Amino acid sequence: MENVSHLSCINCGKEYKPLPDRYLCYDCGDKGLLEVEYDYEKVAANWSKEELANTADQRIWRYRSLLPIEDDTPLPPLAVGNTPIYESKKLAEELGLENIWIKDDGLNPTGSLKDRASAMAVVKAQEADAKIISCSSTGNAASSLAGNAASMGGKLETVIFVPGRAPGGKLAQLLIYGANVVSVQGDYQAAYDLSAAAIKKWGWYNRNAAINPYMVEGKKTSVLEMAEQMDFDLPDWLVFSVGDGCTIAGAWKALKDLKEIGFIEKVPRLLGVQAEGCAPITSSFYSGEPLTVVDENTIADSIAVGNPRNFVKAIRGVKNSNGEMINVSDEEIYEMMRLLGRTTGIFGEPAGVAGLAGIRKMVSKGEIKSNSRVGFVVTGNGLKDVKNAREAAKEPLSIKPDLDLLEKEFIQQGVIKG
């Protein structure tokens, strides 16, 4: 925490001490989201790319000079971070691009980018002397919190609230990790409201990313990592799927950090992608009007947030980067699940590949030029939602154990030549 100067309200600018359980501005309430502010001159004077390159810890904690954690707080042992990045010429060709890089954050320990925020939550909960951490989630934040808390060997318990539509794979993770799981009969808004009431009543540590300013700091490590992996020569565009807005807000925070300490010169443009069936942030981005709550009508459950609470940070980040937002259909998401899988071998869940559908749409509109360098983060693994993966993919060939019959079928399907 030696480089953290204070917390600031994004609404009124009021400053607060960086206490681990300071969530919102006293004066502004729910509109008073807080931002972690750093002494960038101090960071730049005491940290360098060379020192980073020689840091042995390959987890997100290698960026602790830009993280709000105390030196003596026990860190969760799971290997969060250091997810791979790939360049795919074939995928680029299919999208009408010359270059695209894919960072596969579905390879984090519990299968999503949200491990980065949950690892931070485990640290901050300990600093707040909390014994129970709670959140509401459509699935990934929940499973990541349960897994990272479980890795502490019994020091922390979790109480998780999920909507009734949460995919079975994510529920299975929660239960295996030993979380206290509450399946709320309603949508995500109902799950959030009940979690907020329970957290307030019993004083649990609040991991809800739109409320807790430290969660953005965890999520930003995906872009810090990508920058390092690309030798601090980031692409022209960075693309993220958007639900509550916290992840793309974290991306902007990382870019700001890197620019302020002199690690990068060029700031990429951010593209935020929402599902057409649940796109309140895109609507507010283009209309300039306050956010309107919408229904949650999309297969991409991880970004199905009809009443996002981090939309101000998300919109601010996209606009500050001179970026854009766009919506995609569920069918386009299904198509991208297939395309990503067959061209790269990466299995992304619906929300994890929505950004890819946005890239194709932006290229077809001429908003992203064919010679633009594009980076895309797969935010969640496809095994999280096998049901929708099966919907996206074709059915297997069902056949009797007869080689001649198999040959005929293969010829008919073009697998082999007759």
UniProtKB/TrEMBL annotation:
Annotated pyridoxal 5'-phosphate binding sites: N140, T379
Top-level enzyme category: lyase
UniProt xrefs under Gene3D superfamilies: 3.40.50.1100
Organism superkingdom: Bacteria
Reactions performed catalytically: O-phospho-L-homoserine + H2O = L-threonine + phosphate
UniProt-recorded Gene Ontology molecular function terms: L-serine ammonia-lyase activity; threonine deaminase activity; threonine synthase activity
Keyword Lyase: yes
Coiled-coil stretches: none
Pathway field: Amino-acid biosynthesis; L-threonine biosynthesis; L-threonine from L-aspartate: step 5/5
Gene Ontology biological process terms in this record: isoleucine biosynthetic process; L-serine catabolic process; L-threonine catabolic process; threonine biosynthetic process
Record EC number: 4.2.3.1
Family: Belongs to the threonine synthase family.
Job description of the protein: Catalyzes the gamma-elimination of phosphate from L-phosphohomoserine and the beta-addition of water to produce L-threonine.
Name used for this protein in its record: Threonine synthase
